[in-house]
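Support request, priority: normal
Reporter: lab tech (M.K.)
Component: structure prediction queue

Hi team, I submitted a job for DNA mismatch endonuclease vsr from Bifidobacterium samirii yesterday, and the status page still shows it as pending. I've pasted the exact input below so you can check whether something in the sequence is tripping the parser. The sequence length should be 176 residues. Please let me know if I need to resubmit or if it's stuck on your end.
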Amino acid sequence: MADNDAVVKETKTKPASRYERGTRSYTMSRIRGKDTSIETLVRSYLFRRGLRFRKNDRRYPGHPDVVLPKYHAIVFVNGCFWHAHEGCPKRSIPKSNVEFWTAKLARNRERDARQQATLRDDGWNVIVVWECELGRAVREERLERLYGQIVGGGADVGTDAAGMDAVGTDAAGSAG
Ligand SMILES: [Zn+2]
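Reply from support: The job had stalled in the queue. We restarted it manually and it finished. Here are the results:
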């Protein structure tokens, strides 16, 4: 997964209001190039709803943001850029190094698909929450639905599943 490291600086960082600097999870998420605030948002909500979970469990493909063994549920909180959210306005290719970014983001997307398939094969209910689903106006509804998906076992692969069959499988060797 080290391929995210080199380009962390490229991410647009938001004001650090929602996470605690210096904590392990803060450091981990910086290393992974993810937006801590959206992960924290989801975790805080689930915790308030009484759910208990493991974070960034490295035993599982993709190091899921939230693992809930009791419900056999795994939640990924995905930034729309890094995970190439299909059809999403937040997903834009940088204007320089277009070829590099196109290939890289496609690889990220393929890797996500493989990892999620593996987890599903192992019996996990894999739920993806996208960054754009956590905007202020829509967040409450999404989080409410997420809770239902976890305790009720309803799977949700997000809003981009339709594009998956167009994804090639020739990058399988890069599964880190
Ligand atoms: Zn999105």
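Strands lie at 54-55, 66-68, 73-78, 125-130. The pocket of zinc ion is lined by residues 80, 85, 88, 90, 130-132 (CB under 6 Å). Let us know if anything else looks off. Ticket resolved.
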